[in-house]
Amino acid sequence: MDMLKQRIRQEGQILSDKVLKVDSFLNHQVDTELALAIGREFARLFADKPVTKVLTVEASGIQFAMATGIALGVPFLYAKKKKAVTLAENVYSAPVHSFTRQETYQISISQKYLGPADKVLIVDDFLATGAALAGLVQIVREAGAELAGVGCVVEKSFQEGRGLLEGMGVRVHSLARIASMAPGEVHFMDDERTVQPIGETK
Amino acid sequence: MDMLKQRIRQEGQILSDKVLKVDSFLNHQVDTELALAIGREFARLFADKPVTKVLTVEASGIQFAMATGIALGVPFLYAKKKKAVTLAENVYSAPVHSFTRQETYQISISQKYLGPADKVLIVDDFLATGAALAGLVQIVREAGAELAGVGCVVEKSFQEGRGLLEGMGVRVHSLARIASMAPGEVHFMDDERTVQPIGETK
Questions:
Q1: Tens digits of per-residue pLDDT, A154-167?
Q2: Is the separation of the CB atoms in B140 and B169 below 8 Å?
Q3: In this structure, what are the phi and psi dihedrals at residue B129, rounded to the nearest 5 degrees?
Q4: Which CATH number describes the domain made up of B2-193?
Q5: Up-side HSE of residue A133: CA atoms within 13 Å toward CB?
């Protein structure tokens, strides 16, 4: 998604070879037009799959789940994060380890809003270790819902997240895949669509 | 906003005379069409004020800030919540006491994204004690930005939030004002627009 990569090149702050800040347009201040375009792109990439609900995790996935829900004409659902290990009743829940914060938290979804009739598209802002997304995949499966796949806005392709999700049998599309970065420079991988033969869907 | 009140009557779960759950359509699962309509209504209510940026606080304000940003064609910004009392550099910050959780947290906004050139509309899902919204107002004023006002989706009018904000000189519009409630019944106040003389703006 060229518009997104251009913004990352122009406005992204690369603090180290692992830390990219995009808080001027994606996840603190949000460019609503860009967010809507991201939602339309996820809808396009998963157009071959019926989707009844978009799923994300609070907080920074919400704007992209909303945009994708708008593009698809379906509701979205966001998992809540809690430190408490005590499980509430009637929720699907999964533990997520945050390597950044060195702590484990729980993500949870009310069982009322996810079930075998749902066809779910998971979206999030970043794919890095994939821990939170793997937790969402686990919840979708526990609910007996069908998983269309995972859409990520920015993928740090040098981290293990995509491998983790693909190893779970999940189809992943990311809109900007960063092969490597260092302060002052960012290298993107080719878009999947330009690598894949025309007409192929995974 | 009749559509909203109808959904609250139909789907809201009133757990006590103070606790209303609307997580089937507003703040866990989100009806994207309704959220967009809410954004359009905030845009309409503040149409007499120029707005350059919508402001909210994570997580459950994000979908309404996004919808309002879409309706107004402006970006939105969400304050981050942190337990840490240590202040990061270059942020505007305010303490917020949560009566529900009996703890005080900090909300903060990067100074890069708010300044004297901004005309800000604050939105959130609930107005109850008004603590988080008062913190956002304080941040807007610290930044030297102009405040158009505060828009809330659901107001618990029997709590002190509106009084607190109006006491700070803030114009408040809420889309559903609950005068009182108890399990099985909810009583709304009249819409402000039907109470105010036509053409009046506060």
A1: 999 999 999 999 99
A2: no
A3: -75, -20
A4: 3.40.50.2020
A5: 35
Nearest to B62 among A53, A63, A80 (CB): A63
pTM of the model: 0.93
Q: Coil, helix or strand for B116? A: coil
ipTM of the complex: 0.92
Sequence ranges of the domains in chain A: 2-195
Please state which architecture CATH assigns to domain A2-195.
3-Layer(aba) Sandwich (3.40)
Q: What is the pLDDT of residues B76-96, one digit of tens each?
A: 999 999 875 555 679 999 999
Of A32, A76, A78, the CB nearest to B32: A76
Q: Count the Cβ atoms, other than its own, within 10 Å of residue A27.
A: 22
Backbone phi, psi, residue A157, to 5°: -70, -10
Provide the residue type at B6 as one letter: Q
Tell me the chain B residues in contact with residue A57 when contact means C-beta distances shorter than 8 Å.
none
For residue B128, what are its two tokens? Answer: 């109850």
Please compute, for residue A29, the number of CA atoms within 13 A of its CA located in the half-sphere on the CB side: 16
Instruction: Please give the DSSP secondary-structure letter assigned to residue A188.
Output: E
Beta bridge partners, B79, equal B57
CA–CA separation, B54 vs B107, rounded Å? 16
Q: For residues A118 and B190, give the distance between their C-alpha atoms in angstroms, rounded to a whole number.
A: 38
Q: How far apart are CA B37 and CA B186, in angstroms?
A: 22
CB-CB neighbours of A128 under 10 Å:
24
Q: Please state the residue numbers annotated as binding site of B for xanthine.
A: 20, 27, 156
